[in-house]
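@channel sequence for tomorrow's demo:
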Amino acid sequence: MWSFYFIMLEFLHQPLPWANVPHSAKDDLTEDVGSIKAMCLADPQKYLWTNPHTQQDELKNIFCSIQHLAYPDRPNYEYIHQQLVGLLTKERCEAELTHPESVGLPCELLPGKVCVSA
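structure tokens (generated this afternoon):
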């Protein structure tokens, strides 16, 4: 679930703090990245939600819903889905507000958006 979460952050142009860790010996890199991720998960406000797109309540809600899961636990996929729909709706509305000419356009034609049509 954390990999999925980090991918969502990257899609929203949030740089991940461990992305530019110099590649030294593989063991050192794994340890370095692990400690950086632990630091980020302990204080996501400071390290993971630093741009306007990642200040969304939905992303924070998803974080809270998976934060205490252990490996065998099943995430609440319905809740995560609802949060993602809310986030996508906000992003769509923001695009339409900043580009009024795009109201009603298919997603792939919105300015500044790259979408995959179903």
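heads up for whoever presents: The chain is about 55% helix and 0% strand.
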